[in-house]
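Course exercise 7: structure representation. Students receive a sequence record and must write out the corresponding structure in token form. The form below is the worked example handed out in class, using High-affinity branched-chain amino acid transport ATP-binding protein LivF (250 residues). Read each field label carefully; the graders check that inputs and outputs are placed in the correct fields and that the protein name is recorded exactly as given.

STUDENT ID: A-19
EXERCISE PROTEIN: High-affinity branched-chain amino acid transport ATP-binding protein LivF
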Amino acid sequence: MSPTGFPKPVLAIEGLTVSFDGFKAVNDLNLYLDRNEVRVVIGPNGAGKTTVLDLICGKTRATSGSIQFEGRELTRMREYDIVRAGVGRKFQNPSIYENLTVFENLEMSYPKGRKVFGALFFKRSAEVVERVGQVAGEIGLGEFLHQQADLLSHGQKQWLEIGMLLMQDPALLMLDEPVAGMSVSERVQTAELLKRISQGRSVLVIEHDMEFVKSIAHKVTVLHQGRVLAEGSMEAVQSNPKVVEVYLGH
Ligand SMILES: Nc1ncnc2c1ncn2[C@@H]1O[C@H](COP(=O)(O)OP(=O)(O)O)[C@@H](O)[C@H]1O
Ligand SMILES: [Mg+2]
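STUDENT ANSWER:
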């Protein structure tokens, strides 16, 4: 709690700027995310959406500004330490191990057995098995634990990668275009999945599919040229003339 008695945001981004050879891909950005909030970031291609996630997870270094996560300054931390601090990030292409089973992929992501070699010789403690079972259930793969990952559908592979992030129980989960390439029914199932896994954590999603955005977003932030163009409920953002002009009208 802050001195004023209001709960502090989990994530507070202030004045965040990154300049690539003089081009400001993210330009003096402010963004605040609450606990248990599902926020969706939308905006035209090149708006800086992916770059914001790169900055939060430490893949890209900020030129200026601050990113406070649960009171810690992420702009000065290494990528690995940011993961350990509780930030999980899913990239657009899944990075699962195709020749391992669902169980093995999840097991490997358990904080104590993270490395491939570690996992091979890792004694499967009851604790890990229990956690794998729990996460597999959450991502709808409870029936597929012993299936090799390359036999999963595109959607199931995406869910498996979300599961691998969940194994570390992140307080903030970030997903870049999670339903790209998914069938309609997989999109609906992904929305249900995100609602389930956002209990007790904050989720930051980049997405273009407006039906999907509408079904999961508590609040929507519209990025344009590295800045916040509009922010609010889906309805407010959709009827904002500036947003229609630069994005939704196309
Ligand atoms: N590492 C980089 N070096 C140079 N330019 C980059 C780099 N990363 C992103 N950009 C540029 O920054 C802008 C924003 O990119 P990006 O964040 O990927 O947009 P979005 O995800 O909203 O489509 C684009 O013009 C892109 O070309
Ligand atoms: Mg992008």
